[in-house]
Amino acid sequence: MFSKYEDSAYSLKEAVLGDYLFSYDASEPYIRISRTSDPKSVIFQTLASWPFVTAGYATESRAPIVDGNYKANEWTLYETPYQSIKSVFIVENKILFRGEVFGLVTRASYDLTFSVLESKQIKFELEVTPILGTVNRVFLNYWCDVRESFHGFGVQYTYWNLKGRRIPVMVAEQGIGRGAQPITSFLNLIADGTGGDWATTYAPKPLYLTSHNRSVVFENTEVHLYFNTK
Length: 230
Fold this sequence. Notes:
- By secondary structure, the protein is mainly beta.
- It has one helix at about 185-190; strands at about 5, 15, 20-25, 30-35, 40-45, 55-60, 70-80, 80-90, 95-100, 105-115, 120-130, 135-140, 150-155, 165-170, 205-210, 215, 225-230.
- The protein has 2 domains: about 1-145, no CATH class; about 145-230, Immunoglobulin-like.
- Helices cover about 5% and strands about 50% of the residues.
- The strands form 5 sheets. It has a 5-stranded antiparallel sheet, with no helix packed on it.
- Strand 15 (about 205-210) and strand 16 form a beta hairpin.
């Protein structure tokens, strides 16, 4: 069981879990994770006065799969603009942030848990429960350095730095041309999808590594339609 550590805190608080220092402020809301040996070295940080958890509703369309060729599109129709941290709980090497995300037509509660593993990795789990309206998308927003570059997401041929791009993590026929013109457009006219695009790949992977030596691996089984690294 979690023991309650703070309730509606309105100033920066700190908690040490293993080798990591968790700093947070419920009034912003705001979270920062750094090493106890080097508190100025940021491992994870959210943006002050900007929600780090949001929930929303999106529609998705997928063309029929023909010989491994298909397209998937997603349209986010609504995303909650506000977030609160109502309570923070700590037990052993876990810290739980509990609160709500909300807007005009949607309200949902969330539990965001960080665990420090024996491998000295940090695992996060995010669970969102709708209270009002329909929720079928959950977003975790966090800060990155303007000079930081993002690499990975499986076998990607077109761009070395994927920062600022929406990345579909889905297996598909990679196509002929993969976005190179005019061959891709010509093949797509003959049979839509056979030319692929810059992100189509046989081996996607929900993992990235940045130039600041930060890495995130997703283990959930839901479809990872897009990552957006800005």
